[in-house]
Amino acid sequence: MKNKLGNSAKVKFASGCDAKCEDASGFDEAVKLAQNSDFTILTVGEDIDMSAEASSRTDIGLPGKQLELVKRIHQTGKPYAVVLMNGRPLTINWLAENSPAILETWFAGTEAGNAIADTLFGDANPSGKLPITFPRSVGQIPIYYNALPTGRPFEAENKYTSKYLDSPNTPLYPFGYGLSYTTFKVSNLQLSQSKISKTGELKVSVDVENTGKRAGAEVVQVYVRDFVASLSRPVKELKAFQRVSLKAGEKRKIELVLKAKDLGFYNTANQYVVEAGEFGLTVGTSSNDDGLKDTFTIVK
């Protein structure tokens, strides 16, 4: 932060607590500093030793009393942003609902400070996407976007389907999710053909428009589902993606290619097979974005 601001502002620091955060004696100093500051950058999460081999946890919320510290900073009414450092998905529902901003950094390297400053001050526009799923609670685990179908898929109006009494079925943050300082619209899905051979390929095109006020990049994702196969297949699988950088107001058509050979699987004889049949296709900006849909067929 000092590298970024130079002499234009004062940068002050209070530890609050360590990563385990069992001792809250430093909270008052941190809260007082936040009250007397124009903006607070609040770093929370795990120590690197908390997320590795022989480091299992039954509670994957913020460790110790970290959330208590976040709430006290929040109660000051002063603006702040949360920097989240962690090696696994965490249950951060309160942060998601109340914090003005969350920057996921994982366990970053030696230039992390400069990269974080560039992002928080808006000199770099984030465009990363989650490679994992964040659950709402530990009770949802295992939760992942490419699960196998259940015999009773979720239906909101039907009690006797796969769902929770006390939580939505959806994750807090899905695989492939990530925000930007601008906004994007993906539209006009077109397939080059409706049928392909087992050795053929399908071209998928969409229009991507930067609908915000600054330049940025979006990652367009293509998910495929094999409706009927000799083995149960996932409800969706990521099969193609493309990052596209656009100026504010710019619109561009992009094309992604699906090869039939990439839509196969290993059967019970450990043979890789591409089976004929109908496939569903969705294009969006995360695994939960089903806004654009179509179908195609692999023929014998």
Verbal overview:
It is a single chain. The protein is of the alpha/beta class and 300 residues long. It has five helices and 13 strands. It is 13% helix and 28% strand. The strands form four sheets. A five-stranded mixed sheet has the order 5-13-12-7-8, with no helix packed on it. It has a three-stranded parallel sheet with strand order 1-2-3, with helices on one face. Strands 4-6-9 form a three-stranded antiparallel sheet, with no helix packed on it. The longest helix is centred in the first third of the chain and has 10 residues, at 66-75. The chain is globular. The N and C termini lie far apart (60 Å).
Top-tier CATH class of the largest domain? Alpha Beta
Average pLDDT score: 97
Compressed to H and E, one letter per element, the order equals HHEHEHEHEEEEEEEEEE
Most strands sheet: 5 strands, mixed
SS strand fraction = 25-35%
Helix content: 10-25%
**Secondary structural class:** alpha/beta
Task: Tell me the strand order in the biggest sheet.
Answer: 5-13-12-7-8
Number of domains: 2
What radius of gyration results from the CA coordinates? 23 Å
CATH architecture title of the largest domain: 3-Layer(aba) Sandwich
| Basic shape | globular
Would you identify the CATH H-level superfamily of the largest domain? Glycoside hydrolase family 3 C-terminal domain
Low-confidence stretches: none
Number of strands: 13
Number of helices: 5
Distance between the termini: 60 Å
Question: What would the CATH topology of the largest domain be?
Answer: Rossmann fold
